[in-house]
């Protein structure tokens, strides 16, 4: 069969470069450069032939006559004797397509055959340096003034499987955090915080209008309320709310949690996405982080939230209401009593409204926890209740969700100042005033009024001041009304 010199050249080029799948990137680039030069040479030859139509017609007529008078063997011998056949435009375009396909195949082979242990891996961390002073601290073994490290977190996150077509990716996160110890052996320790895998069931490449759904397996934060779901670096206040703190909701749990949303409202100009409906369901061990499961019971958690479907310019933008519930069991042992199915239920309602520069949040939390009454050995129920209200106002436009902030850098003096007020109320047992809450060491209801100021140096750095005023319904030797001043410098990376 007849073969042109161009086809022969293509065959020789591809044969010479067939071993590039295992070559280095530098060698591959050299070979591709050589291919480009040969394509340019062929293009020049084609332009010269097309510029001489009479010569081209004569060559075509000669070839047609030869086909009628010679056999296939004679034709091949004649072509070799006459020299190479001029290339056509179709030949050049075919070569271009072959080269592009070759480049794609080499790239895919490189991805398949090269180990990428650091692909999409990010190192991150948060450090909070804190100082506080109280004017009337009577708590045992607690100084009136101290320097402290609120948080020291270090972790990695990344991608284990990347779905290039739809974005149904498999991600991971692992982090460790500082904690204090008073056992006499060491004054600090790094414990495992997050350790989970997350699979995105729905496409993440289809745009912000696509609903989200992911499965998270491992040790993780709970989808409960507002403050509990926020990572350490995103919490607006220095101290956390009393009710979720002493009811154990900030403690990470081991389990499987499904999170998703539906019918999102999207405004690309303002970088705004607000799903009409958000949901989360899951099952966890329920006995805290870094612990072996101590009973056959599990904690079941559920959360729903609704955001008003209004336009971005509306004053009701980002107005959200939510509800959360945990049905749990715990193991009790003491005073000759053992109960492997002790009640540990949590119920919460929350309201979120953030219309920059002003915003408010409110959370109500109720907890029912069984405990052993040592005075009269028996299992009793403690009914805890908490309220948290926060109002804040932000001066400056540094962190507004807008395309105008995309080009700003991370190394300038504060352009945003946020002031806030928070009312925090907690009653360990609203039906038994003299009940001693073992988690907080408090009896009776108490309120905390806080005034705070956040100075944002950048998206990764802020300085905070917070003044707290504690008011106790029942004063005792270890709890009296007091004032506390806190200062904190936070940086993340």
List keywords for this structure.
493 residues, 44% strand, Porin, 19 strands, alpha+beta, 6 helices
Task: Give a short overview.
This protein has 493 residues and is of the alpha+beta class.
Topology:
Layout: H1 5-16, H2 25-50, H3 53-69, H4 72-82, H5 89-113, E1 122-134, E2 145-161, E3 170-180, E4 188-200, E5 213-220, H6 242-246, E6 253-267, E7 272-284, E8 299-307, E9 319-327, E10 329-334, E11 337-355, E12 358-373, E13 378-395, E14 416-427, E15 436-437, E16 442-443, E17 446-458, E18 461-472, E19 482-492
Antiparallel strand pairs: 1-2, 1-19, 2-3, 3-4, 4-5, 5-6, 6-7, 7-8, 8-9, 9-11, 10-11, 11-12, 12-13, 13-14, 14-17, 15-16, 17-18, 18-19
Helix pairs in contact: 1-5, 2-5
How many extended strands? 19
- In what range is the share of β-strand residues? 35-45%
Q: Determine the CATH topology of the largest domain.
A: Porin
How does the helix and strand content classify structurally? alpha+beta
Report the biggest beta sheet as strand number plus sense, adding barrel if it closes: 16 strands, antiparallel, barrel
Number of domains: 2
User: Which word captures the global form?
Assistant: elongated
Number of H/I helices: 6
Cα-atom Rg, whole angstroms?
35 Å
Fourth-level CATH superfamily of the largest domain: Porin
Separation of termini? 66 Å
Q: What is the share of helical residues?
A: 10-25%
Strand order of the largest sheet: 1-2-3-4-5-6-7-8-9-11-12-13-14-17-18-19
Question: What is the CATH architecture term of the largest domain?
Answer: Beta Barrel
């Amino acid at each position: 069969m007849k073969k042109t010199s161009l086809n022969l050249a293509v065959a020789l080029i591809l044969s010479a470069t067939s071993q590039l799948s295992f070559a280095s990137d530098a060698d591959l680039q050299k070979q591709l450069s050589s291919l480009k030069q040969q394509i340019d040479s062929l293009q020049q030859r084609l332009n010269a032939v097309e510029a001489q139509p009479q010569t081209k017609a004569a060559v075509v007529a000669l070839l047609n006559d030869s086909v009628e008078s010679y056999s296939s063997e004679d034709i091949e011998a004649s072509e070799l004797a006459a020299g190479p056949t001029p290339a056509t435009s179709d030949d050049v375009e075919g070569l271009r397509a072959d080269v592009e396909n070759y480049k794609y195949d080499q790239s895919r082979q490189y991805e398949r055959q090269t180990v990428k242990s650091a692909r999409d891996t990010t190192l991150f961390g948060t450090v909070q340096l804190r100082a506080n002073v109280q004017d009337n601290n009577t708590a045992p073994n607690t100084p009136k003034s101290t320097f402290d490290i609120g948080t020291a977190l270090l972790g990695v996150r990344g991608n284990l499987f990347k779905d290039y077509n739809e974005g149904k990716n498999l991600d991971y996160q692992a982090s460790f955090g500082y904690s204090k110890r008073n056992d006499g052996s060491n004054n600090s320790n790094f414990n495992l915080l997050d350790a989970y895998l997350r699979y995105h069931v729905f496409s993440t490449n289809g745009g912000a209008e696509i609903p989200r759904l992911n499965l998270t397996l491992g040790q993780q934060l709970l989808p409960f309320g507002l403050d509990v779901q926020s990572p350490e670096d995103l919490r607006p206040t220095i101290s956390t709310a009393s009710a979720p703190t002493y009811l154990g909701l900030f403690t990470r749990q081991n389990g499987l949690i499904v999170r998703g949303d539906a019918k999102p409202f999207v405004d690309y100009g303002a970088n705004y996405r607000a799903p009409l409906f958000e949901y989360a369901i899951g099952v966890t061990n329920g006995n805290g982080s870094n612990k072996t499961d101590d009973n056959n019971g599990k904690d079941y958690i559920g959360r729903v939230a609704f955001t008003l479907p209004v336009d971005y310019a509306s004053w009701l933008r980002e107005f959200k209401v939510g509800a959360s519930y945990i049905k749990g069991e715990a193991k009790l042992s003491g005073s000759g009593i053992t109960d492997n199915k002790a009640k540990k239920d949590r119920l919460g309602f929350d309201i979120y409204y953030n219309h920059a520069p002003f915003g408010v949040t409110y959370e109500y939390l109720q907890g029912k926890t069984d405990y052993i009454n040592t005075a009269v050995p028996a299992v009793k129920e403690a009914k805890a209740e908490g309220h948290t209200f926060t109002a804040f106002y932000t001066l400056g436009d540094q962190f507004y969700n807008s395309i105008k902030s995309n080009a700003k850098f991370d190394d300038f003096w504060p352009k945003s100042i946020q002031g806030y007020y928070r009312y925090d109320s907690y009653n360990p047992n609203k039906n038994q005033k003299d009940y001693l809450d073992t988690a907080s060491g408090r009896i009776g209801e108490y309120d905390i009024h806080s005034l705070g100021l956040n100075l944002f140096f950048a998206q990764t750095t802020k300085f905070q001041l917070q003044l707290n005023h504690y008011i106790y319904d029942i004063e005792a030797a270890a709890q009296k009304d007091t004032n506390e001043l806190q200062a904190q410098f936070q940086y993340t990376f």
